[in-house]
Specification:
With 467 residues, the protein is an alpha+beta fold. It is built from 11 helices and 22 strands.
Length: 467
């Protein structure tokens, strides 16, 4: 039985990796009277626009087994910067009918691809059964195992490869997963520089056990406007379907990052606020208003802490980034072995007041396992932010240049809907979150790998550390 692997619609960028899913089940319900069930698994992925699931593949049917191990693999393009929702349905196939309604339903589960790839070994989850299965005493499980794939291959030898630069030779790619009619002309590879070194992928490190940690830093300066005013960037809508720009940035990144954080606890820092009872202004405080730890449970916990904090502090200023950057780099400096990687998401509406100190902090952090994402909200002039995003000119401070690019700046206004119609605004939130997350997180795998290469880390070394 062939495996289907169409590309997801509306994806115009190359995937980070193409992966295959190997599927097993155990303790399936026996739907046959005289023999055991003949299970097959169908896999669906959710379209981010229509929110509908469409089929991306299916396994073969395994005869007479309640613990099947399927041979056919499911091929998928993996994007770190996107939340990819999957659904697995298991059926007992009793005839040649193509209608699923003609076969017995054995169970289903939903998860994200991020949950699967962030599991070090096999991803196992209990199947949900129909109401008629309420008497089942043994849970049925579906198990997914990951393997990375190449886009294609070509045959050569070391001598030919080493001389290809001088000979200006191109190598034609053949994708063995395609049908024979399209197996050739899948692309070409031109070698520009020749050296021998094994290159590892972001996905390989995640599977080896590298943990991703995300810290949120929120701008509570007065330039955001009084939260009681509907025009304030911090105004909380009574309709929970409507998110202000801070909430939109938090959920866009958080919904994806949470799949890579095993304990789902997120530090949330604030800066630029004044505490009315003491008159103190802080540029590094815990948004949950605790004194002993900054952690919030899950993304809902992050949003609750943010909303509660607004009721207890006074928006003040100035806009200083250096303290929150130093806060996270302090922790990153303790994990230089590739076992942990830190992401700091700074959400701000204004011009940086401590630019020299911020540049110094970022340059010093560039040799640590950290990436800094800055999301600009509102309509301020963010020209200075572009200097921090060293895509073209490397960031420098006091004659010291950053060892690698660790900053990504994204103005949120580029992703906001222009319609003021309430129903249109609500329906556009999901689209905004998708496009914003894709842009915000696009550089993380590259920055991640650049750090791993700088310390000569390998997935094997990380796996040994995690043992």
């Amino acid at each position: 039985m062939s495996v289907l692997y169409p590309r997801m619609p509306s994806m115009d960028s190359n995937p980070s990796s193409q992966i295959e899913l190997s599927i097993e089940c155990n303790n399936l319900r026996n739907a046959d009277w005289l023999s055991k069930s003949d299970p097959m698994v169908i896999v669906y992925i959710k379209n981010h626009t229509s929110k509908e699931y469409f089929q991306v593949g299916k396994t073969e049917t395994v005869q007479n087994s309640l613990n099947p191990k399927f041979h056919d693999k499911i091929l998928l393009d993996y994007y770190f910067e996107m939340q990819q929702f999957l659904k697995f349905e298991v059926y007992d196939i009793d005839s040649k009918s193509q209608k699923l309604s003609d076969h017995d339903f054995l169970g289903s589960l939903e998860c994200t691809l991020g949950e699967i790839v962030s599991t070090i070994n096999a991803y196992t989850k209990k199947l949900n059964h129909s109401n008629t299965d309420s008497q089942i005493t043994r849970p049925s499980n579906l198990i997914v195992i990951i393997g990375t794939l190449t886009k294609g291959s070509f045959m050569t030898n070391l001598e030919e490869l080493s001389h290809s630069v001088q000979d200006n030779k191109n190598f034609e790619i053949i994708n063995s997963q395609r049908k024979k009619s399209s197996a050739v002309n899948a692309g070409t590879v031109s070698l520009i520089l020749y050296s021998m070194r094994k290159i590892h992928t972001f996905l390989e490190f995640i599977k080896a056990g590298t943990q991703i940690h995300c810290t949120f830093a929120i701008d509570f300066t007065s330039s955001n406007g009084d939260p009681q005013n509907v025009n304030s960037l911090h105004h909380i809508q009574t309709d929970k379907n409507l998110l202000n720009q801070y909430e939109l940035a938090i959920t866009s990144v958080g919904d994806i990052i949470q799949d890579y954080d095993s304990d789902k606890l997120f530090p949330v820092l604030g800066f630029g606020a004044r505490f009315p009872l003491t008159g103190m202004v802080s540029h590094e405080f815990f948004v949950n208003m605790k004194t002993d730890n900054p952690y919030c449970e899950g993304i809902p916990g992050v949003l609750d802490a943010y909303r509660n904090c607004l009721r207890q502090i006074q928006l003040y200023g100035p806009t200083n980034f250096a303290p929150v950057i130093k806060h996270v780099t302090k922790f990153a400096s303790s994990y230089r072995d590739g076992s942990n990687y830190f992401i700091l998401l700074i959400i701000t509406d204004g011009i940086i007041s401590d630019m020299p100190m911020t540049k110094e902090a970022l340059v010093n952090a560039s040799n640590l396992p950290i990436s800094v994402i800055i999301v600009g909200v509102g309509d301020a002039d963010f020209t200075a932010m572009e200097e921090l995003d060293g895509d073209i000119i490397p960031l420098s401070s006091s004659n010291q240049t950053a060892s690698r690019d660790i900053v990504q700046f994204v103005p949120l206004r580029d992703f906001q809907a222009s319609s003021l119609n309430l129903s249109d605004r609500i329906s556009s939130i999901a689209s905004q979150k998708y496009r914003l997350a894709k842009e915000i997180l696009a550089e993380i795998p590259l920055q991640f790998i650049s750090y791993m290469n700088s310390i000569h880390a390998t997935p094997e070394l990380v796996a040994n550390i995690k043992r």
